[in-house]
Design goal:
- The protein has 832 residues and is of the alpha/beta class.
- It contains 34 helices and 25 strands.
- α1 (20-26) crosses α3 (69-84) and α7 packs antiparallel against α11.
- β3 (112-116) and β4 (119-120) form a beta hairpin.
- Helix content is 43%, strand content 14%.
């Protein structure tokens, strides 16, 4: 019997629809999800706008939590598959989210492939028939199979989550608990450095757990020990565990280019700027779509993905703008009892508690369950299903947890979500780059609020705890980085918190929300309609410019093109210094390292400049001399650091000594005058900063040393009409409180730098507020410059500390007595 060829029929090529709205309409008969009848207005608008711009390389689609962005993402993905007949990947935050997205896709009648655990679920992805759902981890690890594929497009779901994941795949973490021997061996390599710079005691305190900070080790010392670091890592076996093989693929040929960060419990090795733009996924012939409920600010987005958005789709829809009462117990009843009061407020309620670290999570163990990382998925499932008044405490989990409706109405956000990696902690706490990191933090704040609020009809109560967190939210520029409806909810909650006379009264307000009292609902609607929002857009362009510079630098630096890399950062250095002395210090450090690799002797000046701007940057060994037999004060030590040593052992005064102080004559802009005041403080050997510039709050200038702080507000001739109004006096008092809260000095002295004229009658300044004229700072700077020049002429390197000490004493420049030269007067005593 012969084969029946007649039964074989040629397949007709099926027309592939590429319009995502048409794909949905065509697919309606296959939909089994009972919640889907038709596209919502916002979903349809988003799909049509994306389709009109589909050829753009980088498109963001922004929809509030609960507005149905998963359906949008899957339709966009299928549209790209149909158009290209190629490989399209959809990135999810976890395996759990892959399965959730797969279930939704099946409910929408869409075929998908999944990839995790090294296995594809079917062949549809490779056949160009369906999108592949996988994790960010599978895409960005150094051994990803997708890097060998030609991908036509990628969809990044919850794109804001990529920052930490990508950084994690470019980092090796050595945990002291599980790898104590390796931790000791690595940190031991740097003990001699800390001994030579006179900080061995501080380093030992960090080692013993008496210091919670993060140290950045000098990159030049890392390079000197590169082979030994590589040997220790290899011999320890750590590179074969904990996901490190994937990071090692990126770092193994670049150890000498990495940051080496140390804390009491951990060592982290990671690039100073992630070279993300070098990955194949971010080439020009691949299209990328970014889905998020709150898109990262332009600067944070560029740092995360190495690209700039070419189009943002943001349909107007109230979906996801759910009702919240956000309360601040610390503002109501003080921060000393804040944790106790918060626990009292949640005692009889089912609540989710989010903290930035496991250490902070442990303070909740007496009333809640803190699961290990491996237990989180099961713990969330159990919590979601129960009706009991339990507390689930999660560390560092600001996304991927969905508890809509009655599954959870109560959320506690304990402490600022500034990041858990040593890199994040260093930039935030040590280098104080809070302004630069603003949009990243605001994204985490919004995401954390969305854990228990999933749609327009949803509602809940949020407690925000910890003084630093609340103070961050109160800074206008930080508040402005949040969506308008969140800003309004924060303002509403602040008013309710301040208006609560007791814990019982605050609890009554909570009950009103949860029981849907009419009085609450009417108040909420009226307040949200009437409330104004902050809008600070003036620094967005400059932050975007910095991010683009850093991305370009990262690629060139990782390729070891030190000349071009240094040039890139050098071009932006003046703007960086004007925006933030700490950002300028960070740039100076890496410019200096590039110059050192090139053998350029000017690298020492760049290192010195970095350390002068921020003591969080490491001190370079070439600037260190053995003064161990000459005990000196902190002020003298800081002044010594300002000098250089030229060839022939000649002591050299700082470059641009006079230029950096010239605007003390009042001839520059307000910003230039404030920077000149900062430079004067630095040259006096003080910890000198511009808090208002760095953080968006605090005094214009802050001079500190040995427990004494001067909070200086610059009031130039441009303000001469009413320089000491009620508003300005009140602001100075607030700034004194900020200095006391933030730095905890023994004494804070508030002062205006401006004309000695009477305050406005309504200002009522206290006896503590002083005034000195700008001309007096100029006179002091002239004395100081002459002192520097005389020190440089007299001193030999070995006698520099002694000469500085003698000259400063002779010229009356010793802190804090030097402030007597400014002839301060009490503002209250000034008469007409």
């Amino acid at each position: 019997m012969s084969f029946d060829f007649d039964k074989i029929k040629a397949r007709k090529a099926e027309e592939r629809v590429i319009n995502p709205v048409e794909i949905f309409q065509k697919n309606k008969g296959k939909i089994t999800d009972g919640n889907i009848n038709d596209l919502w207005l916002g979903q349809g608008d988003a799909l049509r706008e994306w389709h009109d711009n589909r050829n753009e390389s980088d498109i963001a689609i922004v929809l509030n939590t609960g507005a149905g962005k998963t359906l949008i993402g899957l339709l966009v993905a299928q549209s790209l598959v149909n158009e290209t007949r190629g490989k399209v990947v959809y990135a999810c935050g976890s395996i759990q989210l892959i399965e959730q997205t797969r279930e939704k896709a099946e409910g929408y009648g869409l075929n998908v492939t999944t990839y995790y655990g090294g296995n594809f679920s079917n062949d549809l992805f490779h056949q160009g028939e369906a999108v592949c759902l996988t994790t960010y981890q599978a895409i960005f690890n150094g051994k990803s199979i997708f890097q060998r594929e030609h991908l036509e497009a990628l969809i990044f779901d919850d794109a804001h989550t990529a920052d930490g994941i990508i950084k994690g795949h470019f980092s090796i973490d050595i945990d002291r608990t599980s790898h104590g021997g390796l931790y000791d061996a690595l940190t031991g390599l740097f003990r001699d450095y800390y001994k030579r710079i006179g900080r061995l005691g501080s380093f030992d305190k960090l080692y013993r757990g008496e210091n919670s900070g993060v140290e950045l080790l000098p990159p030049s010392i890392v390079k000197q020990n590169e082979a030994e670091i590589r040997r220790l890592l290899t011999d320890s076996g750590i590179l074969e565990s904990d996901g490190n093989p994937f990071a090692w693929e990126y770092l193994m040929n670049h150890i000498d280019l990495c940051c080496f960060l140390v804390s009491t419990g951990r060592v982290q090795i990671t690039p100073p700027f992630i070279p993300i733009s070098g990955l194949s996924y971010f080439r020009d012939n691949t299209r990328r779509v970014y889905l998020s409920a709150t898109m990262l600010g332009a600067d944070a987005f560029i740092r995360t993905f190495g690209r700039e958005l070419s189009c943002t789709v943001r349909p107007e829809t109230p979906a996801g703008e759910c009702e919240r009462l956000i309360l601040f117990p610390g503002r109501s009843f003080g921060y000393e009892e804040e944790l106790h009061n918060a626990k009292q407020l949640v005692a009889n309620r089912k609540a989710l508690v989010l903290t930035p670290s496991r250490r902070r999570a442990q303070v909740w163990e007496d009333i809640g369950f803190v699961p290990d990382t491996s237990q989180v998925v099961d713990a969330v499932a159990v919590f979601k299903a129960t009706d009991e008044e339990v507390k689930l405490v999660l560390a560092g989990r600001y996304d991927g947890i969905d508890l809509p409706g009655d599954t959870c109405r109560y959320l506690v956000l304990d402490s600022l979500p500034s990041g858990t990696s040593l890199y994040d902690r260093f930039l935030w706490s040590s280098l104080n780059l809070s302004g630069v990191l603003r949009s990243l933090i605001s994204s985490r704040v919004v995401q954390s609020l969305g854990r228990i609020s999933r749609g327009m009809s949803d509602f809940g109560v949020v407690l925000m705890l910890e003084k630093e967190y609340v103070n961050w939210l109160l800074v206008p520029r930080n508040l402005a980085s949040l969506p308008p409806f969140v800003q309004k909810q924060l303002r509403l909650g602040m008013e309710v918190s301040v208006g609560s006379a007791s814990i019982e009264e605050m609890s009554q307000a909570i009950d009103a929300v949860l029981t849907r009292e009419m009085g609450w609902s009417g108040f909420y609607e009226r307040f949200m309609d009437d409330c104004d929002v902050e809008d600070f857009g003036e620094d967005l362009d400059i932050l975007r410019e910095f991010a683009l510079l850093e991305t370009k630098f990262a690629r060139l630096y990782w390729e070891r093109d030190y000349t071009k890399a240094a040039s890139v950062l050098q071009k932006g250095l003046d703007k960086a210094l004007d925006y933030s002395a700490n950002l300028g210090a960070w740039y100076c450090l890496w410019i200096g390292y590039c110059l050192e690799q090139l053998g350029d002797p000017t690298h020492e000046e760049m290192y010195k400049r970095a350390y002068g701007l921020s003591k969080a940057t490491p001190k370079h060994l070439a600037l260190i001399h053995d003064y161990s037999d000459q005990p000196v004060t902190d002020q003298v030590s800081n002044v010594v650091d300002q000098f250089g040593i030229a060839k022939g052992s000649q002591v050299v005064a700082p470059q641009k000594l006079h230029e950096n102080l010239k605007h003390l004559d009042g001839g520059g802009s307000v910003a230039q005058i404030e920077e000149a005041i900062r430079c004067l403080g630095q040259l006096l050997g003080l910890d000198s900063s511009r808090p208002d510039k760095e953080f968006g709050t605090g005094p214009d200038n802050l001079w500190m040393l040995n427990g004494v702080a001067f909070a200086l507000e610059a009031k130039t001739a441009k303000d001469a009409d009413v320089p000491y109004s009620k508003k300005y006096v009140g602001q100075l008092v607030q700034h004194v409180n900020w200095v006391a809260d933030t730095h905890d000095p023994d004494q804070v002295i508030p002062a205006f730098i401006g004309p000695k004229i009477k305050a406005h009658h309504a200002a009522s300044p206290s006896d503590e507020i002083l005034v000195a004229e700008l001309a007096e700072l100029e006179s002091l700077s002239n004395i100081l410059c002459a002192a520097y020049e005389d020190i440089a002429a007299q001193a030999m390197p070995i006698s520099l500390p002694q000469t500085v000490d003698e000259v400063f004493r002779d010229r009356g420049l010793v802190w804090p007595d030097v402030m007597d030269k400014l002839s301060f007067v009490c503002l209250k005593d000034i008469q007409d």
